[in-house]
Amino acid sequence: MPLFRLRVLIAMLGTLTVVLAGCGTGDDGSRQGRRPAGAHVTIQVPTDAPTISAAVSLAQPGDLVLVAPGVYHESVKVATAQITLRGESRDKVVIDGQLQQPNGIVVTAPGVAVENLTVENNTQNGILLTGSATAVAGSPGRTGGYDTGNEPVTFLKSFLVSYVTATRNGLYGIYAFSAQDGVIEHSYASGGADSGIYVGQCKPCHIVVRDNIAELNAVGYEGTNASGDMYVVGNRFVGNRVGLTTDSDHQEKLLPQQGAVVAGNLIAGNQQTSTPEQADGGWGVGVGIDGGSDNQFIRNRIAGNINAGLLITATVDIPPDGNQILDNTFAANGVDVGWTFPTATQGRGNCLSGNDLQTTVPAQLAMIASCPVSAQSPVLSGTWAMPTAPGGIPFTEVAAPAAQPQFPNATTTGATVVPALPALPEIASIPLPSALLLAESALVQTS
């Protein structure tokens, strides 16, 4: 008989033993179970616990919470370190907020893995990973993220989100805020009324966002005040209103945004009308750099964005300085690369090298701002006719996602060990996405 079921049986008989299952509460309020050294269990929902939340409350570090197919109307809070929450089937294990709760899953403990399930219909976030108590309890600010006031910055350390589908959530699908040392991978995000995947308020981040799909969001991926070892690689941001942004925002701490690497992504056709309309009104943009500095954009394929493939501008009083656009391929954008500074805040030291592009604003930008360029060089800025953004649709009406790839051997693989620090990608080995990928999605077509 499995250890966990034996423990539950003994508890039901009222004869708890010290060796198997004597449970108490530690000084920090966490549940302490006296088990044989190194013993871990699989807690099955609903066999061993009727709800996901009940199973998580029973779990101890190293345990696996394995969830059977079903629709679960609950908000799951994971406050125990180093546990794995995994669905048996990615598209059939559904945590549905019914538009009655802010978050589907909230992770506040280190070393937690969330895998192979769907989170949907939450008024704020599908998954929130954070070290901020204010974010857990609070309401979003006017631009979407969390204003934590005078709360000191406290990071959630180490996390993994893998093979998760996050759809039709009122702010973000997958949201890492005030978190470090984590990976978001092999996941799908759609119907995010602000963005599908968001990383905010971390420095240094030590975060890797890789091999994800974000479509039908206001913004596919957003990195706000996300600096230092921040990698966005090998993703597909197609058919949103804006594909990707990296920016600085006074609403969050750790200004300014600096030092992200965006490499090997497909960023195309980001002018879908059947999407939620973000408050900032972005439309038809592949990549937006808004007050972000010292970022590298390397070997991305940026195509079919009706306004601009890549746009650099300032945010309020924060200039975008020293960004490098290297070896990217642009095609069929309104403007391939455009730099525009309509206010007194202007960016310097931004440069281009090795790109395949046709149109820039200002003209001849690839020549006059070739890397390296001095930070003291003249500011380059221009304007172009930007298309008017059409109205959006409620996030609740975004098309349901197709079935997505499953976590391999979900029911037979043990708990996932999340490393304290993720392995960072070797940028030199990340290829330019194939042009054939453009033909695979009807969303690339302008609407």
From TrEMBL:
Name used for this protein in its record: Periplasmic copper-binding protein NosD beta helix domain-containing protein
Top-level division of the source organism's lineage: Bacteria
PROSITE patterns: PROKAR_LIPOPROTEIN
Cleaved signal peptide residues: 1-21
Domain Periplasmic copper-binding protein NosD beta helix intervals: 167-337
UniProt keyword terms in alphabetical order: Signal
InterPro entries, per the entry: NosD_dom, PbH1, Pectin_lyas_fold, Pectin_lyase_fold/virulence
